[in-house]
Protein backbone atom coordinates (compact mmCIF):
# COMPACT_ATOMS: atom_id res chain seq x y z
CA UNK A 1 0.00 0.00 0.00
CA UNK A 2 1.53 3.34 -0.99
CA UNK A 3 2.30 5.84 1.75
CA UNK A 4 -0.19 8.66 2.00
CA UNK A 5 1.16 11.98 0.82
CA UNK A 6 2.36 14.21 3.65
CA UNK A 7 3.02 11.50 6.27
CA UNK A 8 6.39 11.67 8.02
CA UNK A 9 8.72 8.77 7.11
CA UNK A 10 9.37 7.77 10.74
CA UNK A 11 11.98 5.16 9.85
CA UNK A 12 13.97 7.78 7.95
CA UNK A 13 13.62 10.30 10.77
CA UNK A 14 14.80 7.80 13.38
CA UNK A 15 17.80 6.83 11.30
CA UNK A 16 18.80 10.45 10.67
CA UNK A 17 18.49 11.30 14.37
CA UNK A 18 20.70 8.37 15.37
CA UNK A 19 23.23 9.46 12.78
CA UNK A 20 23.02 13.02 14.12
CA UNK A 21 23.94 11.77 17.59
CA UNK A 22 26.98 10.02 16.12
CA UNK A 23 27.92 13.22 14.29
CA UNK A 24 27.47 15.22 17.50
CA UNK A 25 29.77 12.95 19.50
CA UNK A 26 32.45 12.92 16.82
CA UNK A 27 32.27 16.65 16.11
CA UNK A 28 32.25 17.38 19.85
CA UNK A 29 35.45 15.42 20.37
CA UNK A 30 37.04 16.99 17.29
CA UNK A 31 35.96 20.48 18.36
CA UNK A 32 37.33 19.97 21.86
CA UNK A 33 40.67 18.72 20.53
CA UNK A 34 40.85 21.62 18.07
CA UNK A 35 40.04 24.14 20.81
CA UNK A 36 42.71 22.75 23.15
CA UNK A 37 45.32 22.37 20.40
CA UNK A 38 44.72 25.91 19.22
CA UNK A 39 45.11 27.39 22.69
CA UNK A 40 48.23 25.30 23.30
CA UNK A 41 49.71 26.41 19.97
CA UNK A 42 48.93 30.04 20.74
CA UNK A 43 50.79 29.75 24.06
CA UNK A 44 53.80 27.89 22.70
CA UNK A 45 54.18 29.51 19.28
CA UNK A 46 53.23 33.08 20.06
CA UNK A 47 52.67 34.15 23.67
CA UNK A 48 55.73 32.50 25.23
CA UNK A 49 57.93 33.54 22.31
CA UNK A 50 56.86 37.17 21.87
CA UNK A 51 55.80 38.14 25.38
CA UNK A 52 52.47 39.20 23.89
CA UNK A 53 49.72 39.15 26.51
CA UNK A 54 46.37 38.33 24.90
CA UNK A 55 43.25 40.04 26.08
CA UNK A 56 40.83 37.20 26.73
CA UNK A 57 37.14 36.78 27.33
CA UNK A 58 36.07 35.09 30.54
CA UNK A 59 35.50 31.65 28.98
CA UNK A 60 38.53 31.48 26.70
CA UNK A 61 41.43 30.52 28.97
CA UNK A 62 40.52 26.90 29.68
CA UNK A 63 44.15 25.76 29.88
CA UNK A 64 46.78 26.98 32.30
CA UNK A 65 48.64 30.06 31.09
CA UNK A 66 52.20 29.72 29.84
CA UNK A 67 55.00 31.83 31.26
CA UNK A 68 55.07 35.21 29.53
CA UNK A 69 58.52 36.73 29.12
CA UNK A 70 59.63 40.17 28.00
CA UNK A 71 57.71 41.73 25.15
CA UNK A 72 59.49 41.34 21.77
CA UNK A 73 57.67 43.52 19.23
CA UNK A 74 59.80 42.45 16.27
CA UNK A 75 58.56 38.87 16.67
CA UNK A 76 54.96 40.09 16.62
CA UNK A 77 55.88 41.67 13.30
CA UNK A 78 56.96 38.39 11.64
CA UNK A 79 55.25 35.48 13.41
CA UNK A 80 51.77 36.04 11.87
CA UNK A 81 53.43 35.81 8.44
CA UNK A 82 55.15 32.54 9.40
CA UNK A 83 51.94 30.95 10.65
CA UNK A 84 49.99 32.11 7.60
CA UNK A 85 52.73 30.75 5.33
CA UNK A 86 52.53 27.29 6.89
CA UNK A 87 48.74 27.41 6.68
CA UNK A 88 48.90 28.57 3.06
CA UNK A 89 51.18 25.70 2.06
CA UNK A 90 48.95 23.16 3.80
CA UNK A 91 45.72 24.40 2.25
CA UNK A 92 47.07 25.01 -1.26
CA UNK A 93 48.97 21.73 -1.58
CA UNK A 94 46.63 19.37 0.28
CA UNK A 95 43.08 20.76 0.22
CA UNK A 96 42.41 24.06 -1.59
CA UNK A 97 38.80 24.00 -0.38
CA UNK A 98 40.07 24.77 3.13
CA UNK A 99 41.39 28.23 2.21
CA UNK A 100 39.68 31.14 3.91
CA UNK A 101 37.21 31.20 6.73
CA UNK A 102 35.36 27.92 6.23
CA UNK A 103 31.81 29.26 6.13
CA UNK A 104 31.69 29.71 2.36
CA UNK A 105 33.19 26.25 1.82
CA UNK A 106 30.49 24.70 4.02
CA UNK A 107 27.72 26.54 2.15
CA UNK A 108 29.21 25.62 -1.24
CA UNK A 109 29.45 21.94 -0.29
CA UNK A 110 25.76 21.91 0.58
CA UNK A 111 24.51 23.62 -2.57
CA UNK A 112 26.90 22.38 -5.23
CA UNK A 113 28.80 19.31 -4.01
CA UNK A 114 25.95 17.06 -2.81
CA UNK A 115 27.08 17.59 0.78
CA UNK A 116 30.53 16.13 0.13
CA UNK A 117 33.88 16.98 1.68
CA UNK A 118 37.03 14.97 1.16
CA UNK A 119 38.30 12.89 4.09
CA UNK A 120 41.43 15.01 4.43
CA UNK A 121 39.51 18.27 4.96
CA UNK A 122 39.06 18.10 8.78
CA UNK A 123 42.75 17.41 9.42
CA UNK A 124 44.08 19.93 6.89
CA UNK A 125 41.66 22.64 8.04
CA UNK A 126 42.53 22.05 11.69
CA UNK A 127 46.29 22.13 11.13
CA UNK A 128 46.18 25.18 8.85
CA UNK A 129 43.99 27.07 11.34
CA UNK A 130 46.16 26.08 14.30
CA UNK A 131 49.26 27.52 12.62
CA UNK A 132 47.47 30.61 11.27
CA UNK A 133 45.67 31.51 14.50
CA UNK A 134 48.29 30.09 16.85
CA UNK A 135 50.88 32.48 15.40
CA UNK A 136 48.68 35.53 15.81
CA UNK A 137 46.38 35.55 12.79
CA UNK A 138 43.41 37.90 13.20
CA UNK A 139 40.50 35.52 12.78
CA UNK A 140 38.17 33.25 14.67
CA UNK A 141 38.06 29.54 15.35
CA UNK A 142 34.30 29.12 14.78
CA UNK A 143 34.45 29.33 10.97
CA UNK A 144 37.10 26.61 10.71
CA UNK A 145 35.17 24.52 13.23
CA UNK A 146 32.04 24.90 11.11
CA UNK A 147 33.90 23.42 8.13
CA UNK A 148 35.57 20.74 10.25
CA UNK A 149 32.25 19.69 11.78
CA UNK A 150 30.48 19.79 8.42
CA UNK A 151 33.21 17.64 6.86
CA UNK A 152 32.85 15.14 9.71
CA UNK A 153 29.11 14.93 9.05
CA UNK A 154 29.77 14.43 5.34
CA UNK A 155 32.35 11.71 5.93
CA UNK A 156 30.08 9.86 8.37
CA UNK A 157 27.24 10.11 5.85
CA UNK A 158 29.36 8.50 3.13
CA UNK A 159 30.59 5.80 5.51
CA UNK A 160 26.99 4.94 6.39
CA UNK A 161 26.04 5.03 2.68
CA UNK A 162 23.13 7.38 3.15
CA UNK A 163 21.53 9.11 0.19
CA UNK A 164 22.36 12.64 -0.92
CA UNK A 165 19.53 14.25 1.03
CA UNK A 166 20.57 12.61 4.31
CA UNK A 167 24.22 13.41 3.68
CA UNK A 168 23.37 17.08 3.30
CA UNK A 169 21.45 16.95 6.58
CA UNK A 170 24.43 15.37 8.34
CA UNK A 171 26.69 18.03 6.82
CA UNK A 172 24.51 20.72 8.42
CA UNK A 173 24.30 18.82 11.71
CA UNK A 174 28.09 18.51 11.77
CA UNK A 175 28.57 22.23 11.20
CA UNK A 176 26.10 22.98 13.99
CA UNK A 177 27.88 20.55 16.32
CA UNK A 178 31.26 22.12 15.62
CA UNK A 179 29.94 25.61 16.33
CA UNK A 180 28.14 24.49 19.49
CA UNK A 181 31.31 22.98 20.91
CA UNK A 182 33.59 26.00 20.63
CA UNK A 183 31.08 28.86 20.95
CA UNK A 184 28.93 27.19 23.63
CA UNK A 185 25.53 28.26 22.31
CA UNK A 186 23.92 24.96 21.21
CA UNK A 187 20.53 26.29 20.12
CA UNK A 188 22.02 29.30 18.36
CA UNK A 189 24.56 27.08 16.58
CA UNK A 190 21.82 24.76 15.33
CA UNK A 191 19.78 27.69 14.04
CA UNK A 192 22.85 29.24 12.43
CA UNK A 193 23.69 26.07 10.50
CA UNK A 194 20.21 25.84 8.95
CA UNK A 195 19.83 29.60 8.39
CA UNK A 196 23.22 30.60 6.97
CA UNK A 197 22.78 28.56 3.78
CA UNK A 198 20.22 31.01 2.34
CA UNK A 199 19.68 34.74 2.54
CA UNK A 200 15.88 34.49 2.77
CA UNK A 201 15.21 30.86 3.66
CA UNK A 202 16.37 28.05 5.93
CA UNK A 203 16.70 24.27 5.90
CA UNK A 204 13.80 23.14 8.07
CA UNK A 205 14.48 19.42 7.48
CA UNK A 206 17.87 19.71 9.16
CA UNK A 207 16.76 21.68 12.23
CA UNK A 208 16.00 18.80 14.62
CA UNK A 209 19.11 16.78 13.66
CA UNK A 210 21.18 19.95 14.08
CA UNK A 211 19.72 20.66 17.51
CA UNK A 212 20.39 17.09 18.60
CA UNK A 213 23.95 17.11 17.27
CA UNK A 214 24.58 20.50 18.90
CA UNK A 215 23.34 19.35 22.30
CA UNK A 216 25.50 16.23 22.16
CA UNK A 217 28.56 18.16 20.96
CA UNK A 218 28.12 20.86 23.60
CA UNK A 219 27.80 18.17 26.28
CA UNK A 220 31.04 16.58 25.10
CA UNK A 221 32.83 19.93 25.26
CA UNK A 222 31.70 20.83 28.78
CA UNK A 223 32.57 17.29 29.91
CA UNK A 224 36.21 18.10 29.09
CA UNK A 225 36.36 21.80 29.94
CA UNK A 226 33.49 22.46 32.32
CA UNK A 227 30.38 24.57 31.91
CA UNK A 228 30.81 28.27 31.28
CA UNK A 229 29.68 30.98 28.91
CA UNK A 230 32.22 32.60 26.64
CA UNK A 231 31.64 36.13 27.98
CA UNK A 232 31.11 37.53 31.46
CA UNK A 233 28.08 39.80 31.63
CA UNK A 234 25.72 41.51 34.03
CA UNK A 235 23.16 39.24 35.73
CA UNK A 236 20.27 41.26 34.29
CA UNK A 237 19.70 43.80 31.53
CA UNK A 238 16.36 45.43 32.35
CA UNK A 239 14.22 46.36 29.35
CA UNK A 240 13.59 50.11 29.18
CA UNK A 241 11.10 51.01 26.39
CA UNK A 242 12.33 54.61 26.19
CA UNK A 243 15.72 53.31 25.04
CA UNK A 244 14.29 51.69 21.89
CA UNK A 245 15.06 54.76 19.71
CA UNK A 246 18.67 54.47 20.84
CA UNK A 247 18.73 50.82 19.83
CA UNK A 248 17.23 51.73 16.44
CA UNK A 249 20.02 54.28 15.97
CA UNK A 250 22.54 51.63 17.02
CA UNK A 251 21.21 49.30 14.30
CA UNK A 252 21.85 51.97 11.66
CA UNK A 253 25.37 52.61 12.96
CA UNK A 254 26.10 48.88 13.04
CA UNK A 255 24.85 48.55 9.46
CA UNK A 256 27.19 51.34 8.38
CA UNK A 257 30.20 49.78 10.13
CA UNK A 258 29.29 46.37 8.69
CA UNK A 259 29.26 47.84 5.20
CA UNK A 260 32.71 49.34 5.79
CA UNK A 261 33.98 45.96 6.99
CA UNK A 262 32.62 44.08 3.97
CA UNK A 263 34.06 46.61 1.54
CA UNK A 264 37.44 46.47 3.27
CA UNK A 265 37.43 42.68 3.23
CA UNK A 266 36.48 42.53 -0.45
CA UNK A 267 39.05 45.20 -1.33
CA UNK A 268 41.79 43.12 0.29
CA UNK A 269 40.58 40.00 -1.53
CA UNK A 270 40.62 41.85 -4.85
CA UNK A 271 44.06 43.34 -4.24
CA UNK A 272 45.60 40.02 -3.16
CA UNK A 273 44.04 38.28 -6.16
CA UNK A 274 45.82 40.70 -8.51
CA UNK A 275 49.24 40.29 -6.88
CA UNK A 276 51.42 37.85 -8.81
CA UNK A 277 52.52 35.50 -6.08
CA UNK A 278 52.07 31.75 -5.66
CA UNK A 279 48.72 31.00 -4.04
CA UNK A 280 50.39 29.42 -1.02
CA UNK A 281 52.42 32.60 -0.36
CA UNK A 282 49.54 35.08 -0.38
CA UNK A 283 48.37 34.39 3.21
CA UNK A 284 51.93 35.15 4.37
CA UNK A 285 51.70 38.54 2.68
CA UNK A 286 48.54 39.23 4.67
CA UNK A 287 50.28 38.05 7.84
CA UNK A 288 53.21 40.39 7.23
CA UNK A 289 50.86 43.34 6.68
CA UNK A 290 49.01 42.35 9.86
CA UNK A 291 52.23 42.42 11.89
CA UNK A 292 53.14 45.80 10.43
CA UNK A 293 49.72 47.15 11.41
CA UNK A 294 49.50 45.79 14.95
CA UNK A 295 53.08 46.12 16.23
CA UNK A 296 53.23 49.95 16.27
CA UNK A 297 49.80 50.12 17.90
CA UNK A 298 50.88 47.72 20.64
CA UNK A 299 53.96 49.83 21.32
CA UNK A 300 51.85 53.00 21.38
CA UNK A 301 48.85 51.84 23.43
CA UNK A 302 50.63 49.52 25.87
CA UNK A 303 52.60 52.20 27.78
CA UNK A 304 49.64 54.58 27.74
CA UNK A 305 47.51 52.08 29.64
CA UNK A 306 50.48 50.74 31.64
CA UNK A 307 50.15 47.37 29.94
CA UNK A 308 53.27 46.65 27.81
CA UNK A 309 52.62 43.79 25.41
CA UNK A 310 48.88 43.96 25.93
CA UNK A 311 47.11 42.75 22.81
CA UNK A 312 43.83 44.65 23.26
CA UNK A 313 42.09 41.96 21.19
CA UNK A 314 43.68 43.02 17.90
CA UNK A 315 44.96 39.53 17.08
CA UNK A 316 43.06 36.25 17.12
CA UNK A 317 39.29 36.41 17.27
CA UNK A 318 39.52 39.38 19.62
CA UNK A 319 36.95 38.17 22.14
CA UNK A 320 38.84 40.01 24.87
CA UNK A 321 38.02 43.30 23.14
CA UNK A 322 34.37 42.28 23.07
CA UNK A 323 34.62 41.43 26.77
CA UNK A 324 35.80 44.91 27.75
CA UNK A 325 33.09 46.41 25.54
CA UNK A 326 30.52 44.43 27.54
CA UNK A 327 31.85 44.66 31.10
CA UNK A 328 34.71 47.14 30.99
CA UNK A 329 38.01 46.41 32.76
CA UNK A 330 39.84 47.76 35.83
CA UNK A 331 42.51 49.32 33.60
CA UNK A 332 39.98 50.83 31.18
CA UNK A 333 39.34 54.48 32.13
CA UNK A 334 35.86 55.89 32.14
CA UNK A 335 34.57 58.69 29.99
CA UNK A 336 35.50 59.51 26.43
CA UNK A 337 38.89 57.82 26.68
CA UNK A 338 37.13 54.45 26.77
CA UNK A 339 35.01 55.42 23.75
CA UNK A 340 38.11 56.49 21.82
CA UNK A 341 39.94 53.25 22.66
CA UNK A 342 37.00 51.11 21.54
CA UNK A 343 36.82 53.04 18.26
CA UNK A 344 40.56 52.57 17.69
CA UNK A 345 40.19 48.84 18.35
CA UNK A 346 37.18 48.76 16.01
CA UNK A 347 39.08 50.32 13.11
CA UNK A 348 42.13 48.14 13.76
CA UNK A 349 40.07 44.96 13.95
CA UNK A 350 38.34 45.71 10.64
CA UNK A 351 41.68 46.02 8.86
CA UNK A 352 43.38 43.17 10.75
CA UNK A 353 40.61 40.66 10.02
CA UNK A 354 40.45 41.74 6.38
CA UNK A 355 44.21 41.22 5.99
CA UNK A 356 44.10 37.70 7.45
CA UNK A 357 40.88 36.37 5.93
CA UNK A 358 41.04 38.38 2.70
CA UNK A 359 44.51 37.06 1.86
CA UNK A 360 43.27 33.47 2.10
CA UNK A 361 44.38 32.71 5.64
CA UNK A 362 42.71 29.77 7.36
CA UNK A 363 40.85 31.85 9.93
CA UNK A 364 37.18 32.44 10.57
CA UNK A 365 35.17 35.61 10.09
CA UNK A 366 32.36 34.70 12.52
CA UNK A 367 34.25 35.61 15.71
CA UNK A 368 35.69 38.90 14.44
CA UNK A 369 32.23 39.91 13.20
CA UNK A 370 30.84 39.48 16.70
CA UNK A 371 33.74 41.47 18.13
CA UNK A 372 33.20 44.31 15.65
CA UNK A 373 29.54 44.43 16.64
CA UNK A 374 30.39 44.44 20.34
CA UNK A 375 32.95 47.23 19.92
CA UNK A 376 30.46 49.29 17.91
CA UNK A 377 27.71 48.74 20.48
CA UNK A 378 30.03 49.33 23.44
CA UNK A 379 31.32 52.62 22.03
CA UNK A 380 27.80 53.70 21.09
CA UNK A 381 26.40 52.87 24.54
CA UNK A 382 29.17 54.70 26.38
CA UNK A 383 28.83 57.73 24.10
CA UNK A 384 25.05 57.78 24.61
CA UNK A 385 25.51 57.54 28.37
CA UNK A 386 27.92 60.50 28.35
CA UNK A 387 25.86 62.65 25.99
CA UNK A 388 22.44 61.99 27.54
CA UNK A 389 23.53 61.69 31.17
CA UNK A 390 21.17 58.74 31.63
CA UNK A 391 22.56 56.36 34.29
CA UNK A 392 20.11 53.66 33.16
CA UNK A 393 22.01 53.21 29.89
CA UNK A 394 24.10 50.05 30.22
CA UNK A 395 26.91 49.95 27.62
CA UNK A 396 27.12 46.18 28.09
CA UNK A 397 23.56 45.77 26.82
CA UNK A 398 24.36 47.85 23.73
CA UNK A 399 27.54 45.82 23.16
CA UNK A 400 25.63 42.52 23.24
CA UNK A 401 22.89 43.84 20.96
CA UNK A 402 25.51 45.25 18.59
CA UNK A 403 27.25 41.88 18.57
CA UNK A 404 24.17 40.00 17.41
CA UNK A 405 23.03 42.71 15.01
CA UNK A 406 26.38 42.95 13.21
CA UNK A 407 26.74 39.26 12.37
CA UNK A 408 23.00 38.73 11.90
CA UNK A 409 22.94 41.52 9.33
CA UNK A 410 25.96 40.62 7.20
CA UNK A 411 25.36 36.85 7.34
CA UNK A 412 21.55 37.11 6.96
CA UNK A 413 20.95 35.01 10.09
CA UNK A 414 18.77 37.28 12.28
CA UNK A 415 17.06 34.46 14.19
CA UNK A 416 20.26 32.55 14.94
CA UNK A 417 22.22 35.61 16.07
CA UNK A 418 19.31 36.78 18.23
CA UNK A 419 19.16 33.42 20.02
CA UNK A 420 22.95 33.28 20.35
CA UNK A 421 23.07 36.60 22.17
CA UNK A 422 20.27 35.52 24.50
CA UNK A 423 22.22 32.33 25.26
CA UNK A 424 25.39 34.34 25.86
CA UNK A 425 23.56 36.76 28.17
CA UNK A 426 21.85 33.91 30.01
CA UNK A 427 18.42 35.53 29.69
CA UNK A 428 15.92 37.00 27.25
CA UNK A 429 16.12 40.50 28.76
CA UNK A 430 17.52 41.86 25.49
CA UNK A 431 15.04 40.06 23.23
CA UNK A 432 12.98 43.13 22.26
CA UNK A 433 15.96 45.41 21.46
CA UNK A 434 17.54 42.55 19.54
CA UNK A 435 14.39 41.98 17.49
CA UNK A 436 14.22 45.66 16.61
CA UNK A 437 17.89 45.94 15.67
CA UNK A 438 17.97 42.66 13.75
CA UNK A 439 14.99 43.77 11.69
CA UNK A 440 16.53 47.14 10.83
CA UNK A 441 19.93 45.63 9.97
CA UNK A 442 18.33 42.89 7.89
CA UNK A 443 16.69 45.52 5.69
CA UNK A 444 19.67 47.89 5.64
CA UNK A 445 22.11 45.12 4.66
CA UNK A 446 19.70 43.42 2.28
CA UNK A 447 22.09 43.43 -0.67
CA UNK A 448 25.32 42.77 1.25
CA UNK A 449 26.57 39.43 2.48
CA UNK A 450 29.58 37.99 4.25
CA UNK A 451 29.15 34.64 2.47
CA UNK A 452 29.19 34.82 -1.31
CA UNK A 453 28.19 31.16 -1.64
CA UNK A 454 24.78 31.92 -0.10
CA UNK A 455 21.76 31.71 -2.39
CA UNK A 456 18.58 33.70 -1.90
CA UNK A 457 16.11 30.85 -1.39
CA UNK A 458 15.76 27.12 -1.94
CA UNK A 459 14.52 27.91 -5.44
CA UNK A 460 18.05 28.99 -6.43
CA UNK A 461 19.78 26.03 -4.77
CA UNK A 462 20.78 23.00 -6.86
CA UNK A 463 20.17 20.97 -3.71
CA UNK A 464 16.43 21.57 -4.04
CA UNK A 465 16.02 21.66 -7.81
CA UNK A 466 14.10 18.38 -7.96
CA UNK A 467 11.85 19.30 -5.03
CA UNK A 468 10.99 22.65 -6.55
CA UNK A 469 10.07 21.11 -9.88
CA UNK A 470 7.65 18.84 -8.02
CA UNK A 471 6.24 21.78 -6.03
CA UNK A 472 5.64 23.80 -9.18
CA UNK A 473 4.02 20.90 -11.02
CA UNK A 474 1.79 20.11 -8.05
CA UNK A 475 0.52 23.68 -8.06
CA UNK A 476 -0.89 23.34 -11.60
CA UNK A 477 -4.06 21.38 -12.39
CA UNK A 478 -4.40 19.48 -15.65
CA UNK A 479 -7.71 21.26 -16.25
CA UNK A 480 -5.87 24.61 -16.29
CA UNK A 481 -3.61 23.78 -19.23
CA UNK A 482 -5.37 21.19 -21.39
CA UNK A 483 -6.31 22.74 -24.75
CA UNK A 484 -9.99 21.86 -25.05
CA UNK A 485 -10.39 23.50 -28.45
CA UNK A 486 -7.64 21.46 -30.10
CA UNK A 487 -9.24 18.88 -32.47
CA UNK A 488 -8.27 15.23 -32.06
CA UNK A 489 -9.07 11.93 -33.77
CA UNK A 490 -11.11 9.31 -31.90
CA UNK A 491 -12.76 6.00 -32.83
CA UNK A 492 -15.81 4.05 -31.82
CA UNK A 493 -15.10 0.58 -30.51
CA UNK A 494 -16.42 -1.15 -33.68
CA UNK A 495 -14.59 1.03 -36.21
CA UNK A 496 -12.86 -1.29 -38.77
CA UNK A 497 -9.09 -1.47 -38.57
CA UNK A 498 -8.70 -0.29 -42.16
CA UNK A 499 -10.41 2.98 -41.32
CA UNK A 500 -8.37 3.26 -38.13
CA UNK A 501 -5.15 2.82 -40.11
CA UNK A 502 -6.24 5.30 -42.74
CA UNK A 503 -7.17 8.03 -40.26
CA UNK A 504 -4.10 7.51 -38.08
CA UNK A 505 -1.86 7.79 -41.14
CA UNK A 506 -3.52 11.08 -42.07
CA UNK A 507 -3.08 12.57 -38.56
CA UNK A 508 0.08 14.67 -38.25
CA UNK A 509 0.34 15.57 -34.52
CA UNK A 510 -1.50 12.91 -32.53
CA UNK A 511 0.17 9.72 -31.21
CA UNK A 512 -2.50 8.43 -28.81
CA UNK A 513 -6.04 7.86 -30.12
CA UNK A 514 -9.03 7.37 -27.81
CA UNK A 515 -11.51 4.55 -28.32
CA UNK A 516 -15.00 5.53 -27.12
CA UNK A 517 -18.06 3.58 -26.02
CA UNK A 518 -21.53 4.49 -27.26
CA UNK A 519 -22.06 6.83 -24.30
CA UNK A 520 -18.85 8.74 -25.12
CA UNK A 521 -16.75 7.35 -22.28
CA UNK A 522 -13.17 6.30 -22.93
CA UNK A 523 -12.70 2.53 -22.99
CA UNK A 524 -9.18 2.34 -24.41
CA UNK A 525 -6.46 3.90 -26.52
CA UNK A 526 -4.68 3.02 -29.74
CA UNK A 527 -1.06 3.96 -30.07
CA UNK A 528 0.34 5.06 -33.44
CA UNK A 529 2.79 2.14 -33.23
CA UNK A 530 -0.18 -0.17 -33.89
CA UNK A 531 -0.44 1.40 -37.31
CA UNK A 532 2.87 -0.15 -38.35
CA UNK A 533 1.93 -3.63 -37.12
CA UNK A 534 -1.46 -3.55 -38.85
CA UNK A 535 -0.15 -2.15 -42.12
CA UNK A 536 2.14 -5.17 -42.63
CA UNK A 537 -0.68 -7.70 -42.11
CA UNK A 538 -3.45 -7.50 -44.78
CA UNK A 539 -5.51 -10.25 -43.12
CA UNK A 540 -5.45 -8.49 -39.76
CA UNK A 541 -6.33 -5.24 -41.46
CA UNK A 542 -9.43 -6.78 -42.94
CA UNK A 543 -10.67 -8.51 -39.80
CA UNK A 544 -9.76 -6.35 -36.86
CA UNK A 545 -11.80 -3.54 -35.37
CA UNK A 546 -10.74 -0.71 -33.10
CA UNK A 547 -11.78 -2.68 -30.00
CA UNK A 548 -9.32 -5.46 -30.92
CA UNK A 549 -6.45 -3.02 -31.38
CA UNK A 550 -6.84 -0.93 -28.25
CA UNK A 551 -4.95 -1.07 -24.96
CA UNK A 552 -5.93 0.17 -21.51
CA UNK A 553 -6.59 3.92 -21.55
CA UNK A 554 -3.51 6.11 -21.08
CA UNK A 555 -5.51 8.81 -19.35
CA UNK A 556 -5.52 11.27 -16.49
CA UNK A 557 -8.37 13.11 -14.79
CA UNK A 558 -8.58 16.84 -15.36
CA UNK A 559 -8.76 17.24 -11.56
CA UNK A 560 -5.22 15.86 -11.09
CA UNK A 561 -2.07 18.01 -10.94
CA UNK A 562 0.76 18.03 -13.46
CA UNK A 563 3.10 16.12 -11.17
CA UNK A 564 0.72 13.16 -11.25
CA UNK A 565 0.29 13.53 -15.01
CA UNK A 566 4.06 13.51 -15.53
CA UNK A 567 4.39 10.37 -13.40
CA UNK A 568 1.79 8.62 -15.59
CA UNK A 569 3.61 9.70 -18.76
CA UNK A 570 6.87 8.28 -17.44
CA UNK A 571 5.39 5.05 -16.08
CA UNK A 572 3.50 4.24 -19.31
CA UNK A 573 6.34 5.52 -21.51
CA UNK A 574 3.98 7.50 -23.70
CA UNK A 575 4.12 11.02 -25.03
CA UNK A 576 0.42 11.83 -24.67
CA UNK A 577 -2.38 11.29 -22.18
CA UNK A 578 -6.12 11.47 -22.64
CA UNK A 579 -7.71 13.98 -20.26
CA UNK A 580 -11.09 12.91 -18.90
CA UNK A 581 -13.76 14.62 -16.83
CA UNK A 582 -15.51 13.31 -13.73
CA UNK A 583 -17.83 11.17 -15.91
CA UNK A 584 -14.95 9.55 -17.81
CA UNK A 585 -15.58 11.47 -21.02
CA UNK A 586 -12.62 12.88 -22.93
CA UNK A 587 -12.09 16.65 -22.85
CA UNK A 588 -8.73 16.84 -24.63
CA UNK A 589 -5.23 15.44 -25.00
CA UNK A 590 -2.21 16.41 -22.90
CA UNK A 591 1.26 15.95 -24.38
CA UNK A 592 4.81 16.39 -23.08
CA UNK A 593 5.18 19.84 -24.60
CA UNK A 594 2.10 21.04 -22.70
CA UNK A 595 3.68 20.00 -19.38
CA UNK A 596 7.03 21.59 -20.27
CA UNK A 597 5.40 24.83 -21.38
CA UNK A 598 3.27 25.06 -18.22
CA UNK A 599 6.33 24.50 -15.99
CA UNK A 600 8.35 27.12 -17.87
CA UNK A 601 5.55 29.69 -17.61
CA UNK A 602 5.06 29.01 -13.89
CA UNK A 603 8.76 29.33 -13.02
CA UNK A 604 9.08 32.49 -15.11
CA UNK A 605 6.17 33.98 -13.19
CA UNK A 606 7.79 33.03 -9.87
CA UNK A 607 11.09 34.59 -10.90
CA UNK A 608 9.45 37.85 -11.96
CA UNK A 609 7.49 37.97 -8.70
CA UNK A 610 10.70 37.47 -6.69
CA UNK A 611 12.58 40.33 -8.34
Automatic annotation (TrEMBL):
**What residue intervals traverse the membrane?**
12-38, 71-90, 169-194, 206-225, 246-268, 280-300, 312-332, 396-421
- Gene3D superfamilies documented for this protein: CBS-domain, Clc chloride channel
Major subcellular location class: membrane
Its membrane topology, per UniProt?
A: Multi-pass membrane protein
Cross-referenced InterPro entries, in alphabetical order? CBS_dom, CBS_dom_sf, Cl-channel_core, ClC, ClC-type_chloride_channel
Which terms does the record give in the GO molecular function aspect? chloride channel activity
Q: Which Pfam families match?
A: CBS (PF00571), Voltage_CLC (PF00654)
Q: Name one GO cellular component term.
A: chloride channel complex
The record places domain CBS at 549-605
What keyword terms does UniProt attach to this protein?
Answer: CBS domain, Chloride, Chloride channel, Ion channel, Ion transport, Membrane, Transmembrane, Transmembrane helix, Transport
SMART domains linked: CBS
Q: Where in the cell is it found?
A: Membrane
Q: Which CDD domains match?
A: Voltage_gated_ClC
**Xref: PANTHER family:** CHLORIDE CHANNEL PROTEIN CLC-E
Name of this chain's protein: Chloride channel
Organism listed in the record:
Sorangium cellulosum (strain So ce56) (Polyangium cellulosum (strain So ce56))
